[in-house]
């Protein structure tokens, strides 16, 4: 796996040359400049060292980061501001960003998440979930957090954010947590967000969580956690509209990308779907979870998801739909093409019996609608089971279309290649032949399961080239 990982880890778009010099108050390099691409460039720049930051890996910088953001927020209406984090190990607890703001990490900068629990303020549970996921109470604020923001960039020259998650994983396994573990990066009720060109390590739980937000660009992330670490999902768009995830490499203890929109009665009441989502050029390694999961918290609805050019290696499942009675909501108009998989338990997995509920107040008659699921142009090898597709009795999953898919079974694969119940759909050019509930339409239908040709608004976003001479405050 190390060899595969070395070949597939994505290189950041541009490189930062030189190192910061506080004496000269500029970036001390040949060009004295910093260049990268972003949705917005800023008129003002400062370094974390201007606010007393110390990059020794031991001194807490929580106050320095929050003071820097608060000070730079004065430039929100004056061209915005950038906070530069130079080489070093910057220990910090949670801090919140501001609008029209860029956080930029040098290639040798490491943000180390504090293990002092007092540096993690507690928030109320998300309204679309009704409770925390680890505990019924609230949740610890994410390491990098923001709410009601617009135009925010978190980027770097492949700088690192290390969540030091082992501390949190131990507390989780021991049942010692009073609140849900923090994420590494989370934005709520926000728009025009870019998260790019970073390495995220050992998150306490989910790595990147945009929620109740729109116009989100996630690019060039390398996300790594032990494959046995609990709930270390890579990227989880949650009740979001217009999201683009591309060129990311993820090794995870949970789903590499998990699409969500609220949990049972709370998600139904909140009623905010995730829609207009693009996922492309994703590489996933996750032996116990999915490459792309839709649900299980999908009670606000999931619609118009387009995934292409996806690679999965030693991953439990390719595309997984997770739902249950009581979820309500819908998963519809899902399009996946150009997927390559190797060493999989399942290629296709759909479950209508994912029973985890927030409490006993859910409505068992709230049935999810699953329809318009399109998979095409896929190749898989060393697979145990081609497909396990299980709808809900009295609520079948409809409009399933699978075409031009070749699955090479493992030497010790299951005798039954497909398991199907309570589903309706068609196939064409699928090997091994699927179950009778997915009848083959013949070779003339090989181009069925059409992928949309019209672009989504997030694909029209153009990045600017930002160039700075770093004159600090």
UniProtKB/TrEMBL annotation:
**GO terms for molecular function, please?**
polygalacturonase activity
Q: Which GO terms describe its biological process?
A: carbohydrate metabolic process
> What keywords are assigned to this protein?
Glycosidase, Hydrolase, Signal
* Keyword Hydrolase set for record: yes
Q: Where is the signal peptide?
A: 1-21
Q: Which SMART domains match?
A: PbH1
**InterPro entries recorded:** GH28_Enzymes, Glyco_hydro_28, PbH1, Pectin_lyas_fold, Pectin_lyase_fold/virulence, RHGA/B-epi-like_pectate_lyase
Question: Record's PANTHER family?
Answer: PECTIN LYASE-LIKE SUPERFAMILY PROTEIN, PECTIN LYASE-RELATED
- Family, similarity comment: Belongs to the glycosyl hydrolase 28 family.
Q: What protein does this entry describe? A: Rhamnogalacturonase A/B/Epimerase-like pectate lyase domain-containing protein
Taxon lineage: Eukaryota, Viridiplantae, Streptophyta, Embryophyta, Tracheophyta
């Amino acid at each position: 796996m190390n060899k595969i990982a070395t070949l597939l880890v994505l290189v950041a778009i541009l490189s930062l040359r030189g190192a910061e010099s506080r004496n000269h108050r500029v970036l001390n390099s040949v060009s004295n400049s910093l260049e990268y691409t972003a949705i917005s460039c800023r008129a003002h720049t400062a370094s974390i060292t201007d606010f007393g930051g110390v990059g020794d890996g031991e001194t807490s910088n929580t106050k320095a980061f929050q003071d820097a953001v608060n000070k730079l927020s004065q430039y929100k209406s004056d061209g915005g501001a950038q906070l530069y984090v130079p080489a070093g190990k910057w220990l910090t607890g949670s801090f919140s960003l501001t609008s029209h703001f860029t956080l930029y990490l040098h290639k040798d900068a490491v943000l180390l998440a504090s293990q002092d629990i007092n540096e993690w303020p507690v928030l109320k549970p998300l309204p679309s979930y009704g409770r925390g996921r680890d505990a019924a109470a609230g949740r610890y604020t994410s390491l990098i957090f923001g709410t009601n923001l617009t135009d925010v960039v978190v980027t770097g020259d492949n700088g690192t954010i290390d969540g030091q998650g082992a501390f949190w994983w131990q507390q989780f396994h021991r049942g010692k947590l009073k609140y849900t573990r923090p994420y590494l990066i989370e934005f709520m009720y926000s728009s025009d967000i870019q998260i790019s060109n970073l390495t995220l390590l050992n998150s306490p739980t989910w790595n990147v969580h945009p929620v109740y937000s729109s116009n989100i660009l996630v690019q060039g992330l390398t996300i790594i956690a032990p494959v046995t670490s609990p709930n270390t999902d890579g990227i989880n768009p949650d009740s979001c509209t217009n999201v683009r995830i591309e060129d990311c490499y993820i090794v995870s203890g949970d789903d590499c990308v998990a699409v969500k929109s609220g949990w049972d009665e709370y998600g139904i009441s909140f009623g905010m779907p995730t829609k207009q989502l693009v996922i492309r050029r994703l590489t996933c390694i996750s032996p116990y979870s999915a490459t792309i999961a839709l649900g299980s918290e999908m009670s606000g609805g999931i619609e118009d998801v387009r995934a292409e050019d996806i690679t999965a290696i030693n991953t439990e499942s390719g595309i997984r739909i997770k739902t249950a009675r009581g979820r309500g909501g819908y998963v519809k108009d899902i399009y996946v093409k150009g997927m390559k998989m190797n060493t999989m338990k399942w290629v296709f997995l759909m479950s209508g019996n994912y029973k985890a509920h927030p409490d006993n107040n859910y409505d068992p008659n709230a049935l999810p609608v699953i329809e318009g699921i399109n998979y095409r142009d896929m190749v898989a090898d060393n697979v145990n089971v081609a497909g396990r597709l299980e709808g809900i009795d009295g609520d079948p999953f409809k409009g399933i279309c699978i075409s031009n898919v070749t699955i090479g079974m493992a030497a010790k694969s299951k005798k039954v290649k497909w398991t199907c119940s309570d589903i309706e759909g068609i196939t064409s050019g699928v090997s091994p032949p699927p179950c009778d509930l997915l009848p083959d339409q013949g070779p003339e239908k090989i181009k069925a399961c059409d992928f949309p040709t019209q672009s989504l608004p997030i694909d029209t976003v153009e990045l600017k080239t930002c160039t700075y001479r770093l004159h600090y405050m």
